[in-house]
Amino acid sequence: MTVRIGFIGVGGIAEHHMGILKKVDDARITAVFDINQARSAEIADKYGALSFESAEQLMDSGEVDALFVCTPPFARTGIEEAAARKGIHLLVEKPLGLGMEDVRKKEQAIRESGIINSSGYCLRYQDIVAQAKEYLAGRKIDLVMSHRFGGMPDVRWWRMLEQSGGQLVEQSTHQLDLIRYLAGEFKEVQAIHVQRHIQQIDPEATAYDVGTVSFVLESGAIGNITSTCIANYGGRSGVEFYGHDFFVSIDGATLRIIDAQQDTTVKSEVDFYLEQDKAFVEAVRTGKQELLLCDYSEAADTLAVTLAANESAATRAAVSLTGGKENSVC
């Protein structure tokens, strides 16, 4: 079976997926839609697909078995629910949205439909992440330190908090998701988000450009995740886990494990986007949801933590969570 794949939103991340899917034997890109119709037509011509004038027209065309949703987080109205009703399988890029009430409704629709569903948390598919997860299983993590430092995407919506959610929601969410995946659920977050330089780039920008979040996990471990999008020099990202008898670091594509028996460094040998997209295509082809490492519900739980951090920054108070689910201000 060849899986026919459509795309809603054909910006940079979508085209990256398209390039990856060309390497997957059982996948064929058949349909695209973007609000920028010229771009949609260009991408359709490049990848041998049909270009449609609306998301609804694409989903009603009979040309797709599965759909990649790659629109910005503020432009997701009704897409996932419509796909679920029509039995179209979904890979939804992160972040899933900007409001948990809406995302939880989508989650319910997807779950009740029984469609195969995945999300854009591609770092889970790194071979070194699997090795770290195996090593950390059963070990007591006491401290987690994480960071994402880099530049600012050159799209205006990203600079608007009400459209992107800010760096933690839109970018550093990858590192926060790894913390959830490897160390367990968040119990409480307390954040500080500030503007230092961003308004010199765009005087109307509402997003922060420096942020830090302290947190407590359900396990009792504590930690911090710090982000900036103005680090044009020295960009890097990673997560570190400390216990009394071990240290584990995922620094980009490098895993390091130190304990009394070893000081081991391992370089990733896989393209995690390829592993993610292959797994999704195979899950659709075989009907095996269990092949996927991060379904829509898991991605919703990660979003809940990042939005709770935004709430904390706005209210200057700690926000509690239960099992990754949003709860109340402390």
TrEMBL record:
Residues 143-243 form the GFO/IDH/MocA-like oxidoreductase domain. Residues 3-117 form the Gfo/Idh/MocA-like oxidoreductase N-terminal domain. It comes from the Bacteria. It holds the Pfam family GFO_IDH_MocA. One of its GO terms (molecular function) is nucleotide binding. InterPro entries: Gfo/Idh/MocA-like_OxRdtase_N, Gfo/Idh/MocA_Oxidoreductase, GFO_IDH_MocA-like_dom, NAD(P)-bd_dom_sf. PANTHER family: D-GLUCOSIDE 3-DEHYDROGENASE (PTHR43249:SF1), UDP-N-ACETYL-2-AMINO-2-DEOXY-D-GLUCURONATE OXIDASE (PTHR43249). This is Gfo/Idh/MocA family oxidoreductase. It comes from Paenibacillus nasutitermitis.
